Amino acid sequence: MTNEELAGQTEQEPSLAVAAAWVAAAKKIVVLTGAGISAESGIPTFRDAQTGFWAQYKPEDMASEKGYRTNPTMVWRWYEYRRELVAKVDPNAGHLALAEFEKRHPGAITLATQNVDGLHQRAGSSDVLCLHGDLNTQKWLDTPRDCCYIEHAQAGDPPSCDVCGNMLRPAVVWFGEALPYKVFGRAQDAASECDLMLVVGTAGAVYPAAGLANVAKRCGAKVVIVNPAPSGLDDVADLKIRGTAAAVLPRILAS
Ligand code: OAD
Fold this sequence. Notes:
about 260 residues; six-stranded parallel beta sheet; 9 helices; 8 strands
């Protein structure tokens, strides 16, 4: 560890102790996670530069219905690439700390994630509120007809219905699309009832998910941000911990 890193870590010690005490005292905790919690598993964050072949495309241009209709093969392959990437990595200490805390305190924690990578579930968290869907499931692009059976979809990039040509698409929330109504409703209810919200590894730039922190704050909860960099939700925070999810979560969720 460099002197600079050591100094940074020492500076964070009081904040870690305060957050740990708030966690221990809280009756209901909501955790909102974003791409940053999976960074230490080896998944690049959403807004990080894409690598290799994909560097030439902006994720924002591909994660939309318009992008998919314009170039379904390329977008399907981009999601295949991400599925393969996720399959090769493991949950990290941040994911595991959340899952272990849930086991020790059943019912005390609601986990809402913007991530579609399934790493929280693989770490052992149950009932994860997936606000932006799931990379590993598919649905039809257009309203399915009687002939559209996902199990019978014709293989291809993307797979499609061999009768009407309807294409499968990843069951994730794209730009301009609504969040799954019930899932988001549960997250909002939990945010309005919690006494502590941890906001981990999100730039806090994409609404309505980021707005959950505002809901919690308005309803009287304390808000703690865990992020090595400034985020769009810093103004809402009672406490900002400038550290990474895998380093910080095991410390503050030890109770
Ligand atoms: P972003 O990629 O926008 O932001 C990632 C955040 O994680 C940044 O604030 C980083 O500083 C932080 N970060 C990086 N490494 C970290 C680490 N090791 N520990 C903790 N934090 C770290 O990702 P999101 O905020 O999740 O939505 O993006 C939100 C949504 O924007 C995504 O779900 C996606 C995108 O539009 C859709 O696809 C609908």
